[in-house]
Amino acid sequence: MTTRPDWISRSTSYSGPVPNRHGPSPGDWDVLHYDPATGRIVQTGNCAPFDLEHQHVPDCDWLVGKADLHADYVDLSGPQPVVRPRPSAPTSLLDLPSPATVTVRSNALGTSESYTVEDGSFEYSDAPGRYTITVQAWPHLDATFEVDL
């Protein structure tokens, strides 16, 4: 019987027994693929331990473990990559993560424009109307605000 490790990376090879495969196996491992530059999870799934070497997503690294594509990311700041929940979305346009991309969409005109915010604060003025403002600052969750000017 093969023991599942806490985590396993692309550089680790599996040398356990090859089970007889006739349908789903309780020994399958959950696998996630992520961008090694950002930690963004791009794919999740599962496979038998002996298939790990054949699971390949171009330009991605992988880990054995469970993750949510939208709510988690791979933290690359420590000695080993770790799956963590993405930090909460900003709750104010005056306290943004830095850097952040802020997209302002005019609900009346349907036009939008994006801005890069480096100082953590965003103020906007334009013609009167309703605007949808979306904030993206990886790995934080995205935030959307409705603003009436």
Secondary-structure blueprint:
Layout: E1 29-34, E2 41-47, E3 61-64, E4 72-75, E5 82-85, E6 100-106, E7 112-117, E8 130-136, E9 143-148
Antiparallel strand pairs: 1-2, 1-3, 4-5, 6-7, 6-8, 8-9
Sheet with most strands: strand arrangement: 7-6-8-9
- What is the CA-atom radius of gyration, in angstroms? 21 Å
Described by strand count, sense and barrel closure, the largest sheet is: 4 strands, antiparallel
What is the residue-averaged pLDDT? 84
- Helix-strand makeup class: mainly beta
The proportion of residues forming helix, as a percent range, comes to under 10%
* Series of secondary-structure elements, N-terminal to C-terminal: EEEEEEEEE
Shape by Cα distribution: elongated
Strand content: 25-35%
Count the beta strands.
9
Poorly predicted regions: 1-24
Assembly form of the protein: single chain
The gist of it:
This protein is mainly beta. The protein has strands at about 30-35, 40-45, 60-65, 70-75, 80-85, 100-105, 110-115, 130-135, 145-149.
Give a structural overview.
With 149 residues, this protein is mostly beta strands. 0% of the residues lie in helices and 34% in strands. The strands form three sheets. Strands 7-6-8-9 form a four-stranded antiparallel β-sheet, with no helix packed on it. Strands 2-1-3 form a three-stranded antiparallel β-sheet, with no helix packed on it. The N and C termini lie far apart (64 Å).
